[in-house]
Write a structure and sequence with these properties.
Two copies of one chain form a homodimer. Chain A contains twelve helices and eleven strands. Chain A is of the alpha/beta class and 349 residues long. Chain A has two domains: 163 residues, Isopropylmalate Dehydrogenase; 159 residues, Isopropylmalate Dehydrogenase (3-Layer(aba) Sandwich). In chain A, helix 3 crosses helix 5, helix 4 packs parallel to helix 5 and helix 6 crosses helix 7.
Chain lengths: 349, 349
């Protein structure tokens, strides 16, 4: 394939398997060229001939000196069963992009493909780092005050207290890398009950996190009603709660939007009002569902994997690539390793 | 106290301990008199002298023939620790209202007070019905198509598969009583994972629910992204997930509202538009956060307890009283007992 000896960081991009197809990735390259934020090399993994053609048409707008192509004959579809797809499709773009990270030819990979396959494939090929049992998928969520890191949003549906404690460290590291917060405040998601704050699992996790005083800025419990207040920079929960919460919030957001639209169309006066204030809704939507903060990392593995949602547009893809660049730039992986090792020592002590 | 021998159903109402105070309950009585939906007797439990004064001023607008007053010298505050408050305040309005249900002087009780105290007090005094380990708190949630019953929203944060199976039965019964759906479709909330749909707990619950074929209309799994689509009439989950989801949805709703408001005030054109379309937002709000569907039952106990939120207005209080009347009218308690017993037999078979 390519020789890759530059000192610039290198990011593998799986350009297949997303809803909008590889041409959206080419648009992302144009966007990155315009914003001038990219100082990494990119290895685009996918149907090489198709990519060559797509890039050729737009080459005046793309910095081709940064780009290498790697052919992959297969694509994992959105609805394929992860494990069987990984077994059958050894030459899938996603698999080859992960392989580049494993072989250290890339320092990170980005994909908009099948989330289950990416989590399973990433975990199987890259393995969790020493001291971590299970990786966690993190998302960046907007709030009244400022965006926060929310994890786990689905990698590990059955987290024990140690997993949750590790999630706190992983979330802290990603908040430092991506949101550039020096000392992120960390909250543990729970409910108020007669007995106190939550389940035995949560009580144990709380005790572990309190032991990490000095290493993390632990703010204690966060209840559901505080979630979008933005009082902390990292919210920790298990992958079952996190996934349901993330998905149902998107569902609620869509439902509210639909209801507003229906109400605004109910009479002429409202319609005129809606036309005059239309830009407000656009701005609101991009504030609450920002493509600029796309890029959910699968944290805790020996390599950087960044997931962008299946229907990512060029802005979202560019943002995920920049997220990958940021975690590489600040050596997040090394920081995670030493931070986890320190935490495990403290807990065992 | 009172003699209560009428054949009309009797509902105990704890008029203390809510954010808006007992005068809001008097407004609810006026509303109920206007709408003519009430055919039950009401026993108002609280500071009797205060109530007498409040009612005297409005007595022309209230059907006083339906109302009895029961004095209670104490009030459990919103922020009190449930168990210790219950121990200390034997003469609290909430406690006495529950007691009326226990002594069968009332067929249901309604309270806007401290949720934890209501759940603990209700469970301790009324006890779970035979065959049920733990009660579940249910809420009615709006969706794109139609409202649905969502449970458990916080009574039992650690549900095992049997608890969750019972939640399905309890939710079915409440959907029949309150939403008047003959054969409610039931969904089990979960996430998609590499292994399938969710955790071992969820897989086991799914197997139990499949065994109840013929007894319930089980529609299988529901993922977070489908929650507000309204594809089912009852959504089942544990009290940890349910509470976080309910509270965070309210938090998200508030956050979206604030963001829209901020964006609409950004310039003159938008402001004019906002004025013209203001009624649309009001209608949207009352559609998504309807006071008309207030009243969350604590299901699975030997007696009907209906919780309305702490800041309930007159409409919400009236709606909770009507919810109580509906579950009494259709003998929900008896139906629950036989339905649970049948389910337990099927599972053991």
């Amino acid at each position: 394939m390519m020789s890759h000896k530059s000192t610039r960081p290198s990011i593998a991009v799986d350009v297949m398997g997303s809803d909008k197809g590889p041409s959206e990735f080419v648009r992302a390259l144009i966007h990155l060229n315009q914003t001038d934020e990219l100082h990494s090399d990119l290895i685009l993994v996918g149907k090489k001939r198709l990519l060559e053609r797509l890039i050729a048409v737009r080459k005046s707008k793309i910095d081709c000196s940064r780009i290498t192509l790697l052919d992959a004959s297969q694509v994992i579809g959105m609805d394929e069963k992860p494990i069987s797809a990984l077994k059958k499709k050894k030459d899938a773009s996603m698999v080859k992009a992960i392989e580049l990270v494993k072989e250290k030819q890339a320092q990170a990979m980005v994909s908009c493909g099948n989330t289950g396959a990416l989590m399973a494939g990433g975990t199987l090929r890259l393995r969790p780092i020493e001291g971590v049992d299970r990786p966690a998928l993190a998302a960046i969520i907007p709030s009244k005050k400022k965006p926060f890191v929310f994890l786990d949003v689905g990698a590990n549906p059955e987290s024990d207290p140690t997993n949750l404690m590790h999630n706190a460290i992983l979330g802290k590291q990603f908040a430092q890398a991506r949101l550039e917060i020096k000392n992120p405040k960390i909250g543990l998601l729970t409910i108020g009950t007669e007995q106190g704050k939550g389940t035995p699992n949560i009580i144990k996790t709380n005790a572990l996190l309190e032991k990490l005083e000095g290493q993390i800025d632990y703010a204690g419990f966060i209840e559901g009603f505080q979630l979008f207040d933005g009082t902390v920079d990292v919210v920790v929960c298990d992958g079952f709660v996190g996934n349901i919460l993330l998905k149902s919030s998107e569902s609620l957001f869509g439902f509210i939007g639909e209801t507003i639209k229906k109400e605004l169309l109910r009479n002429i006066k409202r319609k005129v009002g809606a036309v005059l204030s239309a830009s407000a809704f656009k701005d609101m939507k991009s504030q609450l569902n920002p493509d600029e903060r796309s890029g959910a990392p699968l944290l805790g593995l020996n390599g950087n994997i960044i997931k962008s949602h299946g229907s990512s547009n060029a802005i979202a893809i560019a943002s995920a690539i920049i997220a990958a660049q940021m975690v590489v730039d600040c050596d997040m992986l090394d920081s995670i390793k030493s931070d986890i090792s320190l935490a495990n020592q403290k807990i065992e002590a």
